[in-house]
Write a structure and sequence with these properties.
The protein has 2 domains: about 240 residues, Rossmann fold; about 90 residues, no CATH class. The chain is built from 12 helices and 13 strands. It has a 9-stranded mixed sheet with strand order 1-13-2-3-12-11-10-7-8, sandwiched between helices. A hairpin with a 2-residue loop joins strand 5 and strand 6. Helix 1 packs antiparallel against helix 7, helix 9 runs parallel beside helix 12 and helix 11 packs across helix 12. It is elongated and about 130 Å long.
Length: about 425
Amino acid sequence: MRDRLVTLAGALLALVVIYGLFFAEQEVPEPARPVTTEVASNGLFALKTWLDGEGVATLSLRERYPELAAHPELPAATGNVLLVALPYYRPPREAEVAELKSWVQAGNTLLIMAALNDTSDWSTAVPSRLIDDLGSVADTYFRAINEDGDDYRSPLLSLFDDDPDAERYAVEPREGHPLVEGIERMAAESDMVTSIWVPDAYNNGDLILELATIPLTGTPLIWQRKTGDGQTIIVGSGTMFTNRAIARADNRRFIANVVAHHLGPDGRFVFDDMHQGLSALYDPDAFYSDSRLHTTIWFVIGFWLLYVVGSSNRLLNPRAETLALRQTDFVQAVGGFISNNSSKTDAGLWLFRSWFNDVRRHLHLPTNGEPVWSELDGLRTLDPKLLGRLKRQHARLSTGRALDLVDIHNTINRARQAIG
């Protein structure tokens, strides 16, 4: 009983150690990110579902950007649209960015949803490299508007308002551009106070078109620029196309215009899920956060604890096994010794000598192990072909050649049965 109590105490101590190592310090869950599988407010599930329902071919890209040029689900090299949310959760490598630019310049469209003029919870969950990423991916650099030496904090996008039609969230298009055709206004949201950003005229050499503005501040929110044979469209809102805002105002109409004017007949509307954490590659963070892993660990711990404290005789002193030797054990030991120390040739000759002695005893001759071929030739019950086979096997063994012992044994047995 004492042994069981000590074992139980040790098992409980081991559980405490495991809990302290793996489960004691739980990080605060990160907010939902803009990926196509996310149904929370920040996800893109609603946008993808709507596009699929409208017959638009979509693709969740869970590989790095170089796969765009040879992805099996992208049949067309041009006429595709890639939606990228910034800031990145998993920043791309420099080589990836170069491949992305080449892909856009070849005749595809890059649609960037950047958390510039709003500050949503998903965009603050990682150290922001938003301005650097925009400059790297879109070759467009931005600066914050200053007022009295400080960053201008927008009063219109400060906190989420209960009124979905509140004017202070309105985004109005500039007339005359195909991408804002049929749009009266769009809407953006923010979870906290935000700065207002505009393109830096000193660092952007190419022409940048302004497609929509925020009426209250008079600052633009959507821009477009030519990129080789393709297009780069920057939307300065990280929420406009997410689940919580895609159905507001005319936000969907803007996506519909992008599809109508920039998606080719065989093109795909691609979602960059890879760089927001939804990867087809091995992801250790996703592995360790998977609930199935936690369930398996708890099951193993529970089974082990049950085994430790369960009733069994495994804590008793082991009993010494008594070995009762039998005649077959002796025969097997001797046979094993002989087989390990004799060649196949010697074993075959020994089988023949044993058989020759049996025949000699049958014919009342001295048992010296010598061949009795002449006596065997006169036996009518012995098949001449079988006898000839025995002579050939014995002759080969006599010259030192090894033969199949099983075949020799079977042949001699047939001869014994024939002799009687």
